[in-house]
Design a protein that fits this description.
Blueprint: H1 6-12, E1 15-16, E2 23-24, E3 31-32, E4 39-45, H2 47-50, E5 55-61, E6 66-70, E7 76-90, E8 93-97, E9 102-105, E10 111-127
Antiparallel strand pairs: 1-2, 3-4, 4-5, 5-10, 6-10, 7-8, 7-9, 7-10
């Protein structure tokens, strides 16, 4: 995955403006996903920042790794593919993931995300907040 792209560099070294305090994105830790190996998250905006209404995360899926089949019972989710490639299995359809693809995952819809050979970076946004 080419993270030297100007947008990716800006994203990974940018800021998140919050009412409580700005956050430097590069200082936020890559948190390992508790269930899926090879998947890491930077929590940009959390429910604590938004009174539980919204959250946003950079999700890194390492090459050949996957966010396995799961569903979010209370949240609607938006995936924005910013780097890399792979695909999403959403209910009964396969959606190719590449930069510029946006996918809405309905509340309660089973889905999985599988990274290709170069891995993948997503912006994942949830309403209400995931965490």
């Amino acid at each position: 995955m080419n993270t030297k792209d100007g947008f990716i560099e800006a994203l990974l070294h940018g800021k998140v403006g919050c009412a409580r305090a700005d956050k430097d994105i590069e200082d936020l830790p890559w948190n390992p996903h508790p269930k899926f190996p090879g998947v890491f998250l930077k929590h940009l905006v959390t429910g604590q920042d938004t009174q539980g209404r919204f959250s946003a995360h950079i999700v890194r899926v390492d090459p050949g790794q996957a966010i396995g089949d799961h569903a979010h019972g209370a949240e609607i989710e938006l995936h924005e593919v910013v780097a890399g490639s792979g695909h999403c299995l959403l209910e009964d359809q396969k959606i190719d993931y590449r930069p510029g693809v946006f996918v809405v995952v309905p509340q309660g819809a089973p889905h999985a995300v599988i990274a290709g050979d170069e891995g993948m970076l997503l912006l994942a946004k949830f309403a209400p907040a995931l965490c």
